[in-house]
Structure formats: C-alpha cells, structure tokens
From TrEMBL:
It comes from the Bacteria. Coiled coil: none annotated. It comes from Phormidesmis priestleyi ULC007. GO terms for molecular function: oxidoreductase activity. This is Protein glxC. The lineage of its organism: Bacteria, Bacillati, Cyanobacteriota, Cyanophyceae, Leptolyngbyales. SUPFAM superfamilies: Alpha subunit of glutamate synthase, C-terminal domain.
Length: 226
C-alpha cells in the first residue's frame, strides 16, 4: 500500500495531526522534515502506521492507542507518555520521561534514554537498547522495563509491581529496590521482549530488579528514614 506523505516544512502540523485522526482508509503515513516539532502523532486511536523521518520534540506519540509509530531520529521529553496500546519505536536517543505513565503497548528506544525513563509506569513495556539516566522507573506501578546498557543513580526508586531487567551495571538502586534471582519465567519474558524489539542479547545476561515492598505501608515509627 502506498504511503501518504506529509512535509512539515510545507503543511502545518495541526493539519497533519487532524488527518492522522481521520485516516479512514488506514494507509501508512510518512512525515518528512519534523525538525523537532512538538506533539507529533499524539492521541492516535486506530491501527495505522506512521513513520516520522527525523527528530521530534516534546510528547511525540503521546496517548497512543493501537498505532505503530516509528521515529527515525531522536525524541524530546515524554515520548509515548501515557501510551495505552500499540508500538512506538525511537531509532535514536530519547530525552527525559520516555514512556511516562504508559498503561500498555511497547516503547522501543534503540539508543540511550535520559532521566526518569518509565516514571510512574502503569503497565506498558519499555525496551532500551542503551543506558538510562537517574531515577528511571521511579514509582513504576506495573509493567516491565528492559535495559540493555547501564543505569545511573536511583534506578527503581519507590517501585511497586513493575519489574526491571538490566544487562549492564547499576550506579545505585533507589529506595526499596532490590536485586532478585532470575526465574525461568523471567528469562522467557526478557527473551520475548528482546525479540519484539529485534535485539539479539542473551536473556541470561540480564539481572532482575523489583520492589522489596517495604514502602507499601506508612510506618509512623520510622522517623521518615527509609
């Protein structure tokens, strides 16, 4: 099927986003010259395919449902934030808060992700081909994060039921996060997510980080020292 092509150097972004929301024929869409524009392909709610040929600004593919969005470059703050379903693939670097509050779907980042990747994750899956910045997975409630590189300070701070799998080194664990033994189910999970992201690492190279569950209930006698 031939793609519908938009050039943001000639067509206003508002017009492009409106077309994306009313693309009844479901044709693939290619967006040229994004030049770091914000809010590209947000709130999509149909199973369409969108390729963005270049770097994007803030909140690209936010609130995504069902759509398959590929970014052939880097992404600014909050890519795929509050994603419900579908797939978002960043072929470069992702800035702060990638996948924030995602409730479903799959976010793939080929390069590194900056601070707070997966913050407040609520059920989505994130696979990072490189490393992540400090406070990634902060208060992550559900879902899974695969990190093929390293993690900076305070990974998994205040985790709930989300699970982190990391291949590289961890500078420091966040409050209430701990390493746990990998099970066969964990290896299977890692293998499946790596395959979806088309990364070829051995699941046996990954370690599991999960919550120690000491912060689930307030302890008035702890003097706020956790």
């Amino acid at each position: 099927m031939d793609s519908v092509i938009f050039d943001l150097s000639q067509t206003p972004l508002r017009e492009v986003n409106q077309f994306l929301h009313h693309n009844a024929n479901g044709k693939p869409i290619k967006i040229l010259n994004p030049n770091g524009a914000h809010n590209i392909a947000i709130g999509l709610d149909s199973p369409i395919s969108v390729e963005i040929a270049g770097h994007v600004g803030y909140y690209a593919a936010g609130m995504n449902q069902l759509a398959n969005v590929t970014i052939d470059g880097n992404a600014g703050t909050g890519v795929a934030e509050n994603m419900m379903s579908g797939r978002v693939h960043v072929k470069g670097f992702a800035s702060v808060s990638a996948g924030a509050s995602a409730q479903g779907g799959l976010l793939i980042i080929d390069g590194n992700a900056s601070l707070r990747c997966g913050i407040s994750l609520k059920g989505g899956d994130i696979v990072v081909g490189g490393s992540v910045g400090s406070f990634s997975a902060f208060m992550a409630q559900a879902g899974r994060i695969i990190i093929c590189g390293d993690a900076a300070d305070a990974i998994g701070d205040s985790l709930y039921e989300a699970v982190i799998y990391i291949r590289g080194t961890v500078k420091s664990l966040g409050a209430d996060a701990q390493f746990e033994p990998m099970s066969e189910t964990d290896y299977q999970t890692v293998g499946e997510l790596l395959a979806k992201a088309e990364f070829c690492h051995d699941p046996k190279e990954f370690k599991r980080i999960a919550s120690a569950k000491q912060l689930y209930h307030w302890n008035a006698d702890a003097n706020q020292e956790y």
